[in-house]
Amino acid sequence: MTTEHVKPGDESAQSVEIPKESSPVADNQAGDLRASFGTKVDGTLSGKEKIDLGIDWDSLDKKSIFASMKMFDDAEKTLPKITGKRGHGIYLIHTAALNTRTEEKIILRVLKVISPNYHELQIEIARPSISDDHEVASFDFLQLKHDEFPTEVEDGCEEWDMKHRQTQEPYKTQGIAGKVIELTEEILKKRSANNNLAQSISAKSGQRDLTAWLEKRDFQADTPQDVAMLKRLKDRDSDLQEVTMFGETYTFDAKEFKSKFPELSGPEDPAVWDDENRKELFFYMKSCFKIKLKKSV
Description:
By secondary structure, this protein is an alpha+beta fold. The chain has two domains: 1-204, no CATH class; 206-292, no CATH class. It has seven helices and 14 strands. The protein has helices spanning 62-68, 75-78, 176-195, 208-216, 224-234, 254-260, 279-287, and strands spanning 2-5, 14-17, 55-56, 82-83, 89-100, 106-114, 119-126, 135-145, 157-167, 198-205, 220-221, 240-245, 248-253, 291-296. The longest helix has 20 residues, at 176-195. The radius of gyration is 19 Å and the shape is globular. The two termini are 35 Å apart.
């Protein structure tokens, strides 16, 4: 599978390889479990090597990003289409440079991704000094509009489901994910001023560390059911079982799993992770214990 990108003004697509998922904190709700969006890994860069980019976030020209976001709703009518994975349409909204203390240029891209059912806001950070498509981080926000999804979203509101969030292993612990969330909140506040719709960001997680990370950023359990599930997770309910696979941790309700799949030994059974032969299990695994947290911006 490939995702393709273009530079501004360059309508020629560039194919990008997609490697295995490597982030223990990533919680990818859609797409391929083992795939991260838009990544090209440099063979000389060890996954265990820590690299402090020293990003100067104040160097980001936010005004230009805010201005470019006015094109978001009609991007497919005004911008050239970049063919994405599984035939999704990708439209480059904006490219911005981030300075670093080492004078290396880091690129931040804002894109619109259109799948058969949803529109997404995607924010990518890349290191063009290694290659134009070397990914530092990638975040996808699925757009839930009140007029298109009346049963899911309150009238007068627009919700953005953060269905994919990942900082690649060498660049963790630098606050990159937090800065992307802050930028997204600022973008949505500007959007609210333009379209008169309240804005919120939501995320679903069954991972203890990711859930705690979201709570620190003022995300709260969305429904009474989510509140109860969050309490179970924090209290380390004995019926909950955590399994780490592909560098990610998943939470299962052991009793529920056993009643649904009595022929299997448990969530750690290799058959659970065999998406070729046991698709029902594979998709159950990705959605079984998800707590929805939500923040208004």
